[in-house]
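Note to self: user wants both folds in one dump. Writing first protein now.
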Amino acid sequence: MFLSVFDMFKVGIGPSSSHTMGPMVAAARFLDLMRDSPFTFAGVRASLHGSLAFTGVGHATDRATILGLAGYTPQDYDAEKAEKTLKTLSATHEINVEGLPPLRFDPKRDLIFDYDHKLDGHANGMMLMALDAQGDVSLRQVYYSIGGGFVMTDAELAAGKDTDEGAPVPYPFKSAAEMLEMAKASGKTIAGMKRANEISRNGEVHLRDGSRRLWQVMNDCIDRGLATDGILPGGLSVKRRAKGIHQALLAERGLNQQAPHTINDWMSVYAMAVNEENAAGGQVVTAPTNGAAGVLPATLRYYLDHVPGASESHIEDFLLTAAAIGGLVKFNASISGAEAGCQAEVGSAAAMSAAGLCAVMGGTPEQVENAAEIALEHHLGMTCDPVRGLVQVPCIERNGLGAIKAVSAASLSLRGDGTHLVPLDACIETMRQTGADMSEKYKETSLGGLAVNVPNC
């Protein structure tokens, strides 16, 4: 099983990898399907199902689907051009994309929020349809946005999770147990094995330059969040807090009365900065999702800015180790809040971050696996119940607490020798089972929890 670090960490836009990036990717795939079809088309239509319908407006799924059908992708998104496209489409009810004739599309009629029919494959389902001149459907495809910006058709999902068809990699571990066995046999670290896998597929230069690019985008996102104030969009009137907290922390530096636990505020403010940017529709990196995008950058920034002896030369090892753990969670359980609750998002992010931090602080493979398990175990059962379907409450603060748990988990593991009672594999399987048992109300539908108990208007 091989999942590239650049699949786990993708540069994209907020507020949601599954609700914003995924539908945009699905729409781009459908346009390609239309281009390859022998039929002649005159219009397009889309229907959103499950969580994509229930929290679609708050997550900008409608906007993402429209822009995806208009030819936009997350990696080359231009906010100014997108606004002009939306305005033009609203007036003309026509989509114009390369390689296809003009297509009729009225957002009010042709974008359907279907709250009554959940598609069978996944909670995040959408159906895209191409219409002929008479308005009849002549091409139809179901897509599932399975978390982290990953998209599969109904056929691909039915075929199974292990769809990697590339050349074999040196260390194809599918479980934490296999990962540790391979590390012991090879004498390599987890990052070392992951690096060998990446280089075997894409080369050393791609890995080096791509890793630098990922951290640059993450770090820039933190800095933008720390420098920006105001009110977040969406109607909840949530105030950006990262800038004010950061300014207060800077003012307190060096003062004798500063409490030791203030370091937690630094971790939190880095994470909150990212997730405020995400909530505002800014550029973020899925880590492994947008809703959990602040945990890993905050943990890595904490390491670089606050840990004695930290070095930027360790960033690649941090990302590789984190990606290895994230791949295990995705392959054996889920990173989708709509499928398994927030344990699958912030819980997975904390496990990945704890593993990365443990690794760059000298942890053995056994200690790294222990760190990931501790962090994930103490997110088990966490629900996803965003108020008004917005990735704001409780998501922004939750990322801060996820970073704190990640650092604590790494620290605890480094105090031991790597032996522990609950294997990471058992914890991942428990998370999968818990997600399957969890009520749909608590899986990104905004039908339960905080979403129904907090005034949102």
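First done. Writing the second protein, which came from a different request thread.
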Amino acid sequence: MAKIAVLDIAASKTGALSILRDFYDQVKGHPDGNEWIFITGAEGILEDCPESRIRVFVRSDVKASSKARLWFDLVTGAGYIRSLGADVLFSLQNTLPRGKSAKKSVLYVHQPLGYQEIRNFSFWKKEERPLAVYQHLYSVLVNASVKKADLTIVQTKWMRDAVLRKTGADAERVVQILPEVGDISAYGKGQRFDPNFFFYPAGDILYKNHELIRKAEEILKDRGHTGFRIRLTRDEPMSREEVYRTYFESTLLFPSYIETFGLPLAEASQTGNPILAADTPFAREILEGYPNVRYFHPFRAEELARLMEEVMEGKILPAAPERESRDTEPENSYGKIMELVRHEA
């Protein structure tokens, strides 16, 4: 049996942490005889599970600062992984430590900033600087890691195409596995669609593009529309269950122009309700075959306002949530990832 190290010091919130926990749950619930070592950046995220041969090591020192993380990636990380005697390193944090750290390496890339081409972020603008670092500097490490990895896993076709184009990696070493999207149909019982209710579940990040919604709202009010409401999770934290229920009551707004996958799009498409989404490769991929989506330019508030008017005026109505048939991944995507990682051992 093999010893497999799972590296994710970076994960601490939102989507990245969900990916780590979901994969941990997959390993915990399906013991395979291998020894699994999870390396995290904070206490309390995961715990040892002797029954499933899982050990958890916490490297809060690496998580302490961006400089410490860079030092780990470029200098000390490979030696640390080697000291654990890992046969396979599975990195969930977009990069691999520089140097030889294990016999085989598998990389999970879910950071799209270096691969999107819709916006070039500037180092000279304070609000854009952190994103510019990811887009122009951090992406160099990601690309180098893809070239080094024995296998790279991405979530969507557009990401796979972009990774291959940017890195020149062997196509056989970059595979796509769609994230799992749970069935939320049970949350639609008793919910009624309101054409004057719009919803956007997204965090407060520049490219989530909340500003476009604000501008569209001003345009609508200037035109005399006053009876509509917009609910943003940025301003009002909501439980996952409440988010699911709200999908069935509202029109999803999705002006975000940078996503690897865009989970709300996949979730809301189960309702049959209208979806107004920024015209991006990821949105068109996720919503392929969905009859009730309308697209707008991510930087033109007038287009979004016009589509919101059409919803309020009954020109875009809910429909049965039927999709054109298309190839989909197995329900247990983390099971497939686990299988690929074990295959490298």
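Dump finished. Worth passing along: Residues 324-330 have pLDDT under 50 and may be disordered.
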